[in-house]
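[Q] Does anyone have a clean structure-token version of this?
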Amino acid sequence: MNGLENNKDRIIILGGGLAGLSAGYLLSGAGRDISVFESNPEVGGLSRTVEMGDFRFDLGGHRFFTNKERIERFVKELMDGELITVPRKSKIYLRNIYFDYPLKPSNVILGLGVLTTFKIITDFFKEMLKKHLRTSDIVSLEDWVVTNFGRTMFNLYFKEYSEKVWGTESERISKEWVAKRIKGLSLGTAIKSAFFKFSKRGIATLADDFLYPSTGIGRISEKLRDGINEGRSVITNTKIVRLNHNNHRIETAIAKNCDLTYIVEGREFISTIPLTTLVQILHPKPPEDILSSASKLRFRDLIIVTIAVNRERVTDLTWLYLPERKIPFGRIHEPKNWSSKMAPEGKTHIVTEHFCFEGDETWIKSDAELVKNTILGLEDLGFFKSYEVVDSAVIRVPKAYPLFEIGYREHYDKIINYFERFENLHITGRGGMFRYHNMDDAIETGIETAEKIINNSKGYAMQDAGCRILIPLNPPLVKGD
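[A] Here you go.
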């Protein structure tokens, strides 16, 4: 493991995802002495690329798309010619029919029938009229979707897909999620675009193409890592298990690598780890009401099952959405349609996303059972025959997505208000901020955090990036965490 000598002016970053690495990249470039601690063997978090023999795949299809000129320029300069432009072609599989996404009027009418299509349109206009007379509050995802797109549209797509993705009833999902993230669940938006001809400019989910590194989305994280003092300050397979604080300042962090436990000093601490985990590792512990609030915030977990087959191509799609519960996975993509470098010639692979909660029926299934069920599901959809399968992989991703249940905001605000008392603790990133960020949002929050620290510490001497030795505690301060 790379080392660190004790240095009270160091900036400690918890988590090597896009937000933490972006912050570290800027801070390192500004001459600050930093250390990034990542618990996984590889950096990138959810936005990493996995190698499976000669195959490469992301943890779900992650494109880079942004309307923020500054962030686009930052990523393009970082990647230095590695980005390619990928045409977007997506479909929704519903009622044994493939629907274009974004929808085309002829496709909708032929697929759903004239009566259902007419009902969708009339429902939409009814809700537009009722909007001005509505007196009750819009609270849930169901309220918001029905109000904006009609009951037929909600029943047809939103209800089943939302509940499949989030594992809870649509009336319990906060409107805040769907109002901000409609581009991630936007069949209704696509129908409005198809039928009512409003501009799709700036609507990420309707973009015709996107940027993508030719060897996988994880290259962005790898380039950030390599730019942080040539990677010497990014420490993987190492988890921060405790933050010691006093008088509203974090004083030291306790890091664990395998069976060794270390104490790390720092001036500033940036947390991108899940907000609930941050609460749990504080020492002394936070007040009971903060612990209670943290216990009420939930994340949705994810299992990626990738199946490699002996075919050149299986689909011509970038994404396929599968809202029906009878199909075990909610979305699939074929990496070779994003870049030919993701699979060897004559072979391809399909990446499936299984949404679940850690410990539930799906999560506890064996890898063999998950692979078997996924192959059967893909075979039933007509993509290939089981004898064509040449390899497979299963990746479990805990705390992949923050779950915005009704009432979550009260608990979230209480936790954030508590952490704001700490003068040298900065919370950023998707998991850290408990926000459903896109990649560009995650990068932006990391950059903004770095800039804040730089601007507030201009008087500090910049540190020489020399050899750093991590000093182990003997005996370990923390054992068995």
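[Q] Thanks! Anything notable?
[A] The longest helix spans residues 439-456.
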